[in-house]
What does this fold into?
Amino acid sequence: MNKTFKLSVLYGIIYAVCMFENPSGITFPILVLLMVIGLAGFTGYSGEGFTFSDILYATACIALSVTVPLTQNKVNIYFTKVVIFTLIVVYLVKKFYKVRNMGMYGGLMSIICFVVEMIANIQAPFKEINLSTKKSDNNEEDEIVTKSSSGKNMVLVGILVSIPILLVVLSLLTSADAAFRKVLLYMFDSLNDIKSICTAITYIFIGLFVTYSFAKTSYDKKIKIFTFDSKKYNPVAAITVSITLSLVYVLFSVIQVVALFGKGTYFLPEEYTYAQYAKEGFYQLVIVAIINMIIIFVCKALFEKNVLLQGCLTVISLCTFIMLASSAYRLNMYINTYHLTFARILGMIVLFVAALYMIGLTISIFTDRFPVFEYAVAATAIAYMVFALIRPDALIARENVNHIKEYKDVRYLVKELSYDAAPYLVDLEGYEDILEDYYKDIVEEYDSKDVRKFNVSEYKAYVSAKEYLRKHSSSVDFTSNK
It folds into this structure.
């Protein structure tokens, strides 16, 4: 069996130890750090050199992983892991397929193809075991060694085949007979539940298969790096479209500056108030901005370079910046009136990312050497890092508590937000019934956690909960000091 397979098994065990029933604990950054070290070893073993970009990718993954145990927001945690996964895929594609500037189309298609190939390689560990067994059988130099090696490999194959069968059989038998279930629960008292054993084994297999699939997809180099045909077309049609759009966008942008930013009422319909005007149109403008990005990208990729086309695309870019600014201004006014929610913060981040993308696309209008895809990946990672570090739920709670007289929706802060919000609710007055139950739940949940599941946000919530209950409740035991 090759070294990659053995290391994949080891990483599968480490993955289970770190992540079993623990999506946001302190072990996640440790897991990512070990993964980065493993990737460095794998690339070195494969004969690939190390570059400055390798350090950047590794630093980005580790930095993003550190944000996971700082929050309890499930959306944040999920998308942090998605971003880390995407960074790893992009890194492996660029490293093993020797691609310097993939372009936006090539980059996106390469990610999709890499993931599809990874899924196809999920069965690769079984092939590796089978191949190793055949090699052992063909070795006739030492009959005793051959039989021993073959026997060991067949035992391993038998174990791997028996595991899924045992999982199904044990689940059925424990459901069918209470006495059998009691005996097994007693035998595995440290885990308390047969389902926990099955889940832990599943985690090991997930770590094994994903790690080995990453390595095999990278090393085999089977995916195709997509690029647009090098043939460029006459730009007349593109110029016609872009001129038409430019005229409309310039008119729209002028109205935005006068009616929205300038708070002018001359252009407003009679039935509209200024607040109503500012509220509507956010999503429509974001969609138009995305359409403009696609237009610029397609014109750059398909049509010959032309000064007039470049000028029109530049106008479209500048107008798109105005549209994004208009959307941000509208959203900010809405927040000032109705205060923060998670969706509104997410909207601001989306606008920020879109503005970063537009900067890259605008630069690419004038130079073909600008790495648009790589820039987009970096911009996304940086913007998401900002989003993760501000901890949206904490920001929402802090800002809305400061305006509690106007906001008044305490149930949203308690029911809809994660425990990131808990430290900012302790000074609220007049909501003792709601908050006492809320903080009791936090204390009970935290007291049942082990060190492996330590989460900074959850610990801060626990400290705040004990402080609040010490002041407002006499029915809670505070002798526990975890």
